[in-house]
Write a structure and sequence with these properties.
Length: about 450
């Protein structure tokens, strides 16, 4: 532990816990995770079974699961064992879109629910609600992984990231915000839009800030690293780790990022609905599932379990979300499970070998600006009602066609607002055409892609 880390842990964090119940909860959750990461696989499975029982009970309070469980011949007196779990049909995005309200425990206080809106890989917005306690758990999971990547409390942390909404989502008291900034001094660089000038600026800012750890969209870290290589610009700091997330870490990305930053990449897998699911440790031998909070299944098309090494669909069960239980939620990604043996790091948390899917295209503009596909989902799933599906198609360097499938809640005047926001973000002279369509055909893989570039 560094001196700063020791000061933070021994002085600042105890003070924080004393003055804020919220901090006390966050830090207790982190302490628990830092202990349980070393538990034997059997003990982890016992914890999962205990938490699953509890989630089964929470699910019986919701109209949706009451019906679904009865359909599977379960009764409230069942313990909800892993065997019972295997009987439940996967929860699809379509289920959430259709029955969203029925998935909520009606007695849960509304003010304790935090919406997570997502277009996911399908471009069809859905909203998932999480209670405050599960937001604290996300903090603990993320912080545990940041520490695997060599960061410690008090050390500088840079983000090459786009969705500032993530940071703003929860309103915090002044003391929380202030002490947080001491525990994690942050530099935020907007990765939605990158060009040569901005990347030069990023390099200068990073050189001045000297982060211990950098978190980035995998593609943004790669483009930035390519820019540094091509220009011969120097990075004068040496972080301990680069955490990549949000889009897939393509095999060609890792060596370029590692050579430019001079440190290893720690990949992280998650999605907006449940945030962090699995993350890479210092042994770089797959991604450890956060098994204390999730059961991650990899299944065949008939929902039977895949063998290690076999690619299948990802189903996620949250073991701690009670307000809106997510049971066998089909995220829409494909992954491969690693063999059931301990990782060289010593942790027995199960591992994913690789995760596929969720690729969003990257758009290149005539002036060299790179725009991340996720930018568009932030526009369309933001606060607008009625967008059912969207697809952004770049068919020429300076032309985008934007298809929207909307329902009766959508107000056509909003299109002008979209146009303005997008035009301000892209380079001048880019033409945008909006089209309202009844349906968007899936791509050749059968999967709907929300961002497609035919010129990149
Ligand atoms: Zn490991």
């Amino acid at each position: 532990m560094s001196l700063k880390g020791a000061l933070c842990r021994r002085v600042l964090m105890p003070v924080r816990r004393l003055f804020s119940a919220e901090s006390a909860k966050r830090h207790r959750l982190l302490r628990e995770l830092e202990e349980s990461q070393w538990w034997a696989a059997a003990r982890l499975r016992d914890l999962q079974a205990e938490r699953l029982r509890d989630i089964g009970g929470a699910a019986w309070k919701t109209p949706f699961y009451k019906k679904r469980f009865r359909g599977c011949r379960l009764s409230p007196s069942n313990d909800f064992t892993p065997e019972d779990l295997a009987k439940i049909p996967p929860l699809t995005k379509d289920d959430i879109r259709r029955y969203g309200g029925d998935l909520l425990d009606p007695s849960w206080p509304k003010e304790d629910l935090h919406p997570h809106r997502t277009g996911g890989s399908t471009g069809e917005p859905i909203t998932v609600y999480a209670e405050t306690d599960s937001e604290f758990a996300v903090w603990a999971m993320v912080t545990r992984h940041n520490r695997w990547a060599g960061w410690d409390f008090g050390e500088r942390f840079a983000l090459l990231w786009g969705a500032t909404r993530d940071a703003m989502r929860m309103k915090k008291a002044f003391f929380e915000t202030f002490s947080e900034s001491l525990l994690t001094p942050r530099l935020w660089l907007n990765a939605f839009r990158m060009n040569r000038e901005r990347m030069a600026e990023f390099a200068d800012l990073l050189n001045r800030f000297k982060p211990r750890c950098v978190q980035s969209y995998a593609s943004a870290a790669f483009f930035f690293a390519q820019y540094i290589q091509a220009t011969g610009k120097e990075l004068t700091f040496r972080p301990f780790g680069i955490i990549t997330s949000a889009d897939p870490l393509c095999p060609e990305y890792r060596p370029v990022i590692e050579s430019v930053f001079g440190c290893p990449v720690f990949n992280r897998y998650g999605c907006r609905e449940v945030m962090t699911l699995a993350s890479e440790c210092e042994a770089h031998a797959g991604l450890h599932v956060c098994a204390e909070h999730f059961i991650v299944e990899i299944v065949r098309p008939d929902f039977s379990p895949c063998a290690p090494g076999e690619a299948g669909e990802v189903l996620v069960t949250s073991l701690t979300r009670r307000a809106m239980p997510l049971i066998r939620y089909a995220i829409g990604d494909t992954a491969v499970l690693e063999k059931d043996e301990p990782c060289p790091c010593g942790r027995q948390l199960p591992r994913l070998r690789e995760v596929q899917g969720r690729a969003s295209d990257i758009f290149r503009l005539p002036g060299g600006t790179i725009v991340h596909g996720i930018f568009f989902s932030s526009i369309f799933y933001g606060n607008t009602m009625g967008v059912q599906k969207f697809q952004v198609l770049q068919d020429a360097l300076d032309h985008f066609e934007i298809k929207l499938v909307v329902d009766e809640r959508f107000q056509k005047a909003v299109v002008e607002k979209f146009r303005k926001e997008i035009e301000e973000f892209l380079e001048p002279g880019i033409r945008l055409d909006f089209r309202f369509v009844p349906e968007i055909e899936p791509g050749p893989t059968g999967k709907h892609r929300f961002a497609v570039s035919k010129v990149s």
